[in-house]
Design goal:
The protein has helices at 23-31, 56-62, 123-126, and strands at residues 3-7, 14-21, 39-45, 53-55, 68-73, 78-91, 101-111, 119-121, 130-134, 139-143. By secondary structure, the chain is mostly beta strands. It has one domain (10-132): Acid Proteases (Cathepsin D, subunit A, domain 1), CATH 2.40.70. A six-stranded mixed β-barrel has the order 2-3-8-4-7-6. A hairpin with a 4-residue loop joins strand 9 and strand 10 (139-143). 31% of the residues are buried.
């Protein structure tokens, strides 16, 4: 089993992420020598979200089209959101040789611009690994 370890910071459970086109779109582009480079960013673990989210600037930079529109329940209100299909990877940007927690095909919602992160990591990803929070040790681990 692979493990990534991150410090607990003032902002919370923050991870490094790489986001790109969904794998079935990206692989043929790569095999012909093309395709965009993955976009690095900062993600925040959000156990209150069922689905992960990616910021609009990254979705726009990669040219990812809207998959469909739907609604989600926010705090106190229902909100209209667009859904997109991406590949999303959690990694240790300081040591990229460590294993990555990879999701080559993941449906995400567009992240509100008021959130100061590039991605929110929701329960759709959290449920694919074991997360251990060591409060006294000021760190958390993802085993996958």
């Amino acid at each position: 089993m692979a493990r990534l370890t991150f410090p607990i910071v003032r902002a919370g459970l923050v991870v490094d992420v790489m986001i790109n086109l969904e794998a079935s779109v990206l692989v043929p582009l790569r095999s012909s020598g093309g395709g965009p480079s993955p976009v690095p960013g900062r993600g925040l673990i959000d156990t209150g979200s069922d689905i992960s989210a990616v910021g609009w600037p990254i979705l726009q930079q990669l040219g990812i089209p809207v998959l469909r529109s739907t609604s989600t329940q926010g705090i106190g209100a229902s909100l209209a959101v667009n859904l997109y299909e991406v590949s999303l990877h959690i990694l240790d940007a300081q040591n990229v040789g460590l294993p990555w927690l990879s999701h080559p095909s993941l449906v995400v919602m567009e992240l509100a611009s008021v959130v100061p992160f590039d991605a929110l990591i929701g329960m759709d990803i959290i449920q694919t690994c074991t997360m251990l929070v060591d409060g006294p040790g000021h760190q958390f681990m993802l085993d996958f």
